[in-house]
Design goal:
Oligomer: single chain
Helix content: 55-70%
Number of strands: 0
Mean pLDDT: 79
Shape: flat
Length: 174
Amino acid sequence: MVRKLRIQHGWSQEHLAEISGLSVRTVQRIEGGKGAGLESYKSLAAVFEVDIELLQEGEPHMTTDTNITEEEKDAIEHVKKLKSFYQCLTYYIVTLIFLTMVNLFVSPGYLWVIWVAIGWGISILYGALKTFKFVEIFDTGWEKKQIEKRLGRPWAKPVKAKNTAQDNPDQYNH
């Protein structure tokens, strides 16, 4: 429940930890279903402006798959891809700065670092095109077409059954 509320507010774990007065590790443990002390739950309930029982009851049963909508999953996946891209871009820039200094110190007459920049840069460019959806090669549409081609018929992705007694026991106990 904490994770879902945090995502609905558009907060990072670090931001939630800061405004709640908890450590990032505590937020991670609670979101991972490990539970927490009463004071931690009180702090989170105050931040989210919800009843403390909602947080205490929701955590033990929460899994990342059952309580997050498809739209939220897509948003989480996109943010992970963005983060990965920006990390790669940062490594690229830092490494090229270092290699440029080495190149200028060791062999200033020949700028071999340009070849590294071009080769790695092509990979970074491709990552940017995929991350920012300029090019959607091998996306889910492609996968579906390949499955239909293999099956020789249209294919509908199976949908998980929802609202079972196991998913929400209170719903069937009226």
